[in-house]
Design goal:
- Chains A, B: Pfam families: HTH_34.
- Chains A, B: It comes from Amycolatopsis acidicola.
- Chains A, B: This is Helix-turn-helix domain-containing protein.
- The structure is a homodimer of 101-residue chains.
- Chain A has 101 residues and is of the alpha+beta class.
- Chain A has one domain: Arc Repressor Mutant, subunit A (Orthogonal Bundle), CATH 1.10.10.
- Chain A has a three-stranded antiparallel β-sheet with strand order 1-3-2.
- The radius of gyration of chain A is 15 Å and the shape is elongated.
- Chain A starts with 10 loop residues before the first helix and ends with a helix.
- In chain A, 35% of the residues are buried.
């Protein structure tokens, strides 16, 4: 029996908010916390928790700094994060193709 | 700002094991418990819990019966289940298209 596409999914990346964070981070050099919060319609606390999980796993890195006088937080995706996201996307592509066939 | 595709995902359906159960159930008239357990590489207890969540939400129906003398459990997807899965697949398709572009 060939493997079902969902067995290739990892909750670390598949969880919908983390998937949102990673897909946005993959599109840009770095992304600001407030932009992620608004785009993904999350509370700051919820977003912080998901970023911490991804940082702990080495998929994201967090930078703290200033935009003028305002403290800001940015995140950027790591090479491991890009690989994990590419694997998730391959599994999703297979799942959608199977569903559409 | 247009909505990010992950905001259209619902954990009820998006959770990877429940997504597996629903995609398989959508392909056939009904599916037997043991087949789901093996295909999705789940323990019986874990599979039972996810089926209960989907049944409670009205996305699956469970039938108990016999195959010869052996008690068997089958599940089948409901019209609500098909709609929920179609919405999930539309969001995933948008996400993959955005990632690939």
């Amino acid at each position: 029996m060939s493997e079902h596409p969902t067995t290739g999914l990892d909750e670390l990346v598949h969880q919908r908010h983390r998937l949102g964070i990673l897909t946005i981070a993959a599109e840009v050099k770095r992304v600001e916390f407030g932009y992620l919060r608004e785009t993904l319609e999350l509370t700051g606390g919820n977003l912080s928790r998901h970023i911490a999980v991804l940082e702990e796993a080495g998929l994201l890195e967090v930078e703290k700094g200033y935009d003028g006088k305002r403290p800001k937080t940015w995140v950027h995706i790591t090479p491991s994060g890009r690989r994990a996201l590419a694997e998730e996307m391959a599994a999703l592509r297979a799942l959608v193709a199977r569903h559409d066939s």
